[in-house]
Each structure stands twice: as structure tokens, then as C-alpha cells.
Structure prediction request, 106 residues.
Amino acid sequence: ESRDGRLFVGTEHAGLRMISTDARPGASAVARRWYENGAAMNDRVAAILQDRDGVIWWVGMEGARWLRKGVRDDWADAVTGRLGAAEGLPPHVFDTLGESPTGDLW
Prediction:
């Protein structure tokens, strides 16, 4: 759960999802997903972390990805990015994620 009460869920083949509910009685939950260059991010998610700056990070088979909240409360204008082999990460599956007291990600 993020600091603003949103539930982020990692999936095996459908990337990161944010589950939110409508405040209206009887309304169903909505799962938001994010896209990169027009394509859905469908990677495996092994671990999720919100860092001290509020950025959501997740790791899996394609390295690390991040999601930074925009100005909208519903995360609809969030910005995404990735760190992988092209950025110097070793080419293997990541399955854990942590943050040090100084803000470094491990």
C-alpha cells in the first residue's frame, strides 16, 4: 500500500496494477495499468517498494521500473521509467528490493 492509501499489486504476466475503489456505494474496484511507448508493461513483478521520495519501484525479469506520481491524485498522469541492462544493471532476474537509511536502492 502506498502512502496515499493506494494498493499496488504485482502480477506474474501483467505488470504492475493499482487497485482503487470508487467511493460510491456499490461501485466496483478498478485496476489501473501503465504503458511505455504505447505498449502495456506486462513484465513479471517480483517486488514492489515506495521510496522515501514517493516513487514506486518494482523489479522482475526486465530489471527495475519506476513510477512517479504526477499532479493528479488518481495517478493517471504518472511518469514511468526503467533501469535495465542498457543502464548497467546485470542481466538477470531481480526478486527483492530494499532501501537503505540513506535512500539507496538495493
